[in-house]
């Protein structure tokens, strides 16, 4: 039974994200404090700068943040420029004590995705996830990527982006999906800065964004860089995100409890999607058709919609599989919305309302 935190970092050591407009002011104050640092990167669309070189100690970084805010607040009547820690964006992976905790895909029979007729309407969908791999269900005329994975990955979760993309295409064969493979490495994580850059850049050229990853913070506030990215996605773009798989966490696991907000899902303009369908407590029995909320879905007021996220079938590198999680519930919602946009010729917001029977509004009962 999971009752205490596993080794997992929620911050990137020695890095701060600060408002680009006030970068000069912040650097002047850092110089006055005799704090060494460097400007690692700036991004105009985000309006932010990434500073590094503050050392490996999180306590020291906390001290720098506290002192900067104290000094600015004292000089400017309580105001201080926006600044915060660089965070980690993680795959929405299992965190609870149930059999689903391993959360790995199981082999399955193929799914046929119909080939759309030429000349019909196309909906543009953006996905920020792990790199997508070549697959028969993901023809390059309908899927583009900043980079394609090669071979079959050693880590099954590296196929997450491939699986998510195939679910969107199953729901909406007329969706053209652009994938930014920001989450990489053995842990399939990213610096939140890289995820945010992918969000804001993709958001300028798509109709829908699917975000099946999450960042968590100790104080429950949205990471500055993720919040800014979502704020700067054009208002007509619908953002769909996985609510997280930590609803059945006991204690503190991987930096979160059962009540932790996951970002970007918990942000106001984002459609946070939870999973329905149950995985039995013994023998891994699956009840995918159940409308009951999945145990691993957070029971929290910022969750907006639910749909089936258990034993969903999709593509993985080298084959097909079933997989469970709110990541895949979110991808199914994105596909359903995209399909309605293409067939009914409506906006993303109107399309979401048209599919309410398949994607019901989550009614929070007041209990987590």
UniProtKB/TrEMBL annotation:
<dbReference type="GO" id="GO:0016787">
    <property type="term" value="F:hydrolase activity"/>
</dbReference>
<feature type="active site" description="Charge relay system">
    <location>
        <position position="160"/>
    </location>
</feature>
<comment type="similarity">
    <text>Belongs to the peptidase S8 family.</text>
</comment>
<dbReference type="Pfam" id="PF00082">
    <property type="entry name" value="Peptidase_S8"/>
</dbReference>
<keyword id="KW-0720">Serine protease</keyword>
<keyword id="KW-0645">Protease</keyword>
<feature type="active site" description="Charge relay system">
    <location>
        <position position="129"/>
    </location>
</feature>
<dbReference type="InterPro" id="IPR036852">
    <property type="entry name" value="Peptidase_S8/S53_dom_sf"/>
</dbReference>
<feature type="domain" description="Peptidase S8/S53">
    <location>
        <begin position="122"/>
        <end position="339"/>
    </location>
</feature>
<feature type="active site" description="Charge relay system">
    <location>
        <position position="327"/>
    </location>
</feature>
<dbReference type="InterPro" id="IPR050131">
    <property type="entry name" value="Peptidase_S8_subtilisin-like"/>
</dbReference>
<keyword id="KW-0378">Hydrolase</keyword>
<dbReference type="InterPro" id="IPR000209">
    <property type="entry name" value="Peptidase_S8/S53_dom"/>
</dbReference>
<protein>
    <submittedName>
        <fullName>S8/S53 family peptidase</fullName>
        <ecNumber>3.4.-.-</ecNumber>
    </submittedName>
</protein>
């Amino acid at each position: 039974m999971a009752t205490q935190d596993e080794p997992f970092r929620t911050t990137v050591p020695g890095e701060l994200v600060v408002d680009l407009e006030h970068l000069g002011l912040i650097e002047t104050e850092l110089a006055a404090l005799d704090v060494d640092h460097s400007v690692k990167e700036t991004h105009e669309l985000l309006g932010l700068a990434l500073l590094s070189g503050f050392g490996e100690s999180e306590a020291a970084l906390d001290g720098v943040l506290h002192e900067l805010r104290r000094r600015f607040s004292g000089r400017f009547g309580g105001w201080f420029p926006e600044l915060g820690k660089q965070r980690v964006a993680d795959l929405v992976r299992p965190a609870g004590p149930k059999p689903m905790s391993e959360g790995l895909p199981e082999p399955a029979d193929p799914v046929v995705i119909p080939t759309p007729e030429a000349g019909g309407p196309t909906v543009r969908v953006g996905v920020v996830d792990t790199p997508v791999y070549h697959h028969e269900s993901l023809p390059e005329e309908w899927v583009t990527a900043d980079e394609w994975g090669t071979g079959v990955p050693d880590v099954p979760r590296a196929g997450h982006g491939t699986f998510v993309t195939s679910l969107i295409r199953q729901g909406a064969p007329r969706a053209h999906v652009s994938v930014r493979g920001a989450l990489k490495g053995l842990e399939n994580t990213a610096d939140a800065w890289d995820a945010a850059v992918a969000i804001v850049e993709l958001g300028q050229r798509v109709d829908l964004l699917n975000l099946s990853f999450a960042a968590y913070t100790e104080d429950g506030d949205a990471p500055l860089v993720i919040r800014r990215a979502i704020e700067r996605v054009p208002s007509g773009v619908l953002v769909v995100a996985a609510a997280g798989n930590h609803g059945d966490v006991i204690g503190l696991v991987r930096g979160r409890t059962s009540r932790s907000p996951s970002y970007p899902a918990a942000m106001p303009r984002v459609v946070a999607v939870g999973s329905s369908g149950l995985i039995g407590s013994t023998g891994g029995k699956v009840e995918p058709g159940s409308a009951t909320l999945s145990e691993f879905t957070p029971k929290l007021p910022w969750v907006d919609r639910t749909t089936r996220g258990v034993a969903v079938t999709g593509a993985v590198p080298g084959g097909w599989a079933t997989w469970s999680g709110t990541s895949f519930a979110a991808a199914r919602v994105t596909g359903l919305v995209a399909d309605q946009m293409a067939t009914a010729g409506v906006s993303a917001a109107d399309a979401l309302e048209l599919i309410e029977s398949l994607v019901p509004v989550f009614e929070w009962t007041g209990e987590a």
